[in-house]
Design brief:
Number of domains: 3
Oligomer: single chain
Largest sheet: 5 strands, parallel
Number of strands: 12
Strand content: 15-25%
CATH class of the largest domain: Alpha Beta
CATH architecture of the largest domain: 3-Layer(aba) Sandwich
Bound molecules: ligand 10G, iron/sulfur cluster
Radius of gyration: 21 Å
């Protein structure tokens, strides 16, 4: 029986970013250096497949530091942690390794520098997300004001409009954030911020690739987890760029084949925490049902790599 043809537009770049790659390596190298169990505070990156794989190798994932014993190493996730967490680990004389992405640490330093210069901080981010909690937690409780939307900008109450700075989460929607920054600049013309925002290269590139694909396809699938902020942003970007069916799938088993009946072109991408093996699984699932032609849509080439912390490098 002949299979119906399907053109699969594969986004590039997609999937793992340099910060995710480094964070996973940190857990693997810690397991090699210290043996199991090694504790990890929060999912090292927001992906069940990654977490399950590391759990099988002896990592133990906990939400809070007090769930980890004093005498085993603990790793902090790529999303970053409030200052109080390494301080508590040090107080308990624990071995700890911080897997915070260097691009998130850069935002932490920015926030602290602005505060030292007497500026009140505003953070553009999602309430309750670990990265937002970590960045806001670089300064004492209540010092950083959170805005999530343009509406929030109208409501935020500041100490002195002439002494303000802002930072952002690294995985936000580029377009939504531009709107929020514009609203901040309009209400507080003296506010100081980064050149554009703190959205990282990986977020920007993955969103741009989806924008390029959306007008060409009947449907978009984003491989990623429901708790992965950057993956969910890719779904939104796909829908807003004109693709009516834009969906998140964790694995091939999540694909709604009935909804895709009659589709002749599909876009596939993956969030920064989704392993390539899951993208391959999705492509294979299409191959089983269609005569697939893969077209790579490459909108940027990435060659960013981050070193792992020295304490682990010496173990090599
Ligand atoms: O997109 P979020 O922040 O939810 O995280 P993720 O684990 O799905 O992807 C990697 C991004 C980070 C570690 C945040 S900088
Ligand atoms: Fe780092 Fe960006 Fe990846 Fe976050 S999404 S881990 S900031 S490279």
């Amino acid at each position: 029986m002949t299979k119906p043809p399907l053109t699969l537009h594969l986004a590039a770049p997609r999937g793992f970013c340099a910060g995710v790659d480094r964070a996973i390596k940190i857990v693997e190298m810690a397991l090699q250096k210290w043996g199991a169990p090694v504790y990890v505070r929060h999912e090292i990156v927001h992906n069940k497949y990654v977490v399950d794989g590391l759990t099988a190798k002896g990592a133990v994932f906990v939400e809070e530091l007090d769930e980890a014993p004093d005498d085993r190493p603990v790793i902090f996730s790529a999303h970053g942690v409030p200052k109080s967490i390494p301080a508590e680990a040090a107080r308990r004389e624990m071995i700890y390794v911080d897997a915070t992405c260097p691009l998130v640490s850069k935002v932490h330093i920015e926030a602290q520098r602005h505060a030292e210069n007497g500026l009140q901080m505003i953070m553009i981010g999602h309430d309750g997300h670990p990265e937002t909690i970590g960045t806001m937690g670089q300064l004492p409780e209540g010092e950083v004001l959170l805005v999530e939307t343009v509406d929030d900008v109208a409501k935020v109450e500041v100490r002195d409009p002439s002494k303000l700075a802002y930072v952002t989460q690294t995985t936000l929607s580029v377009d939504d954030t531009a709107g929020i920054v514009a609203a901040l600049l309009e209400r507080f013309p003296q506010i100081i911020g980064p050149h554009k925002e703190d959205i990282c290269y990986a977020t920007t590139n993955r969103q741009a690739a989806v924008k390029a694909i959306a007008p060409k396809v009947d449907a978009i699938l984003v491989v990623g987890a429901p708790n992965s902020s950057n993956s969910r942003r890719l779904v939104e970007v796909g829908a807003r760029a004109g693709c009516a069916y834009s969906q998140l799938v964790q694995r091939a088993g999540d694909i709604d084949w009935r909804a895709l009946e009659g589709v002749r072109s599909i876009g596939v991408t993956a969030g920064a925490s989704a392993p390539e093996t899951l993208v391959e699984e999705v492509i294979d699932a299409f191959r089983a049902r269609h005569d697939v032609t893969v077209e790579l849509v490459e909108t940027a080439v990435e060659n960013v790599e981050f070193k792992v912390p020295r304490v682990l490098r010496t173990a090599e």
